[in-house]
Amino acid sequence: MNRTAAGVLIADPKLFPPSAPGANDGLKLVADYIHSKKMKFGIYTARGSRTCLGRPGSDSHEEVDARTWAEWGVDYLKEDSCGGVTHGSVWQQYAKMRDALNATGRPIYYSITQGVIYNDGPKRLKMHCYGESAFTTKPWVAEGKDVTSLANSYLVEYCNNKDGTCSSSLCVFFRSSQKLLPHSVR
């Protein structure tokens, strides 16, 4: 993946050959094939300027990325919390993508994962998997924010502590919102 001068994502033409030279529809062709098999097509990004693998992330490109994915026929977006420069709070960044997806008019299921500074473990021990941070929505809930208004699915808590201790009865818990957003798959 790369970006044009206007910030539009470009699929690698060697991995996803376009229909014609200079076209940017290689992933749309893949999505069309997947849809012909009655399956859904998903894609990955990160809220920062780079993904975990160093590819272009969506920071400051939320609207153009959402439009591109809608044009390609994307049904599912997984947005991670890693890589590069970010603008605004984690909540604001995810909300910006949510709004951009909704503006496309295409139903795209939206799933988020965020790493935040948080530790409610026994004796405030460091989390083994992520130092002083964890993948959790607990700080947002404590602030009175409704996570179900942000995305269709999200990690409630994940740390995979080596010693088996968890800050709740479940070490890993992935939640799908019962309150689906307008861009959810119906």
Q: Could you please describe the fold and organization of this structure?
A:
With 186 residues, the protein is an alpha/beta fold. 23% of the residues lie in helices and 19% in strands. Strands 3, 4, 5, 6, 7, 8 and 9 form a 7-stranded mixed sheet that branches. Helix 3 (90-104) links the parallel strand 4 and strand 5 (109-112). Helix 2 (62-72) crosses helix 3. It starts with a strand and ends in a 10-residue tail after the last strand.
Mean pLDDT: 75
Uncertain stretches: 118-131, 156-186
The radius of gyration is: 18 Å
Shape: globular
Structural class: alpha/beta
The total strand number stands at 9
Distance between the termini: 29 Å
Kindly state the percentage of residues in helix.
10-25%
Q: Number of helical runs?
A: 4
Query: How many domains?
Result: 1
Could you give a short account of the major beta sheet? 7 strands, mixed
Strand content: 15-25%
In terms of quaternary structure, what is this? Answer: single chain
Succession of helices and strands: EEHEHEHEEEHEE
In terms of topology, how is this protein built?
Blueprint: E1 2-3, E2 9-10, H1 26-36, E3 42-46, H2 62-72, E4 76-80, H3 90-104, E5 109-112, E6 115-117, E7 133-136, H4 138-142, E8 153-158, E9 172-176
Parallel strand pairs: 3-4, 4-5, 5-8
Antiparallel strand pairs: 1-2, 6-7, 7-8, 8-9
Key features of this structure:
186 residues, alpha/beta, seven-stranded mixed β-sheet, two-stranded antiparallel ribbon, 23% helix
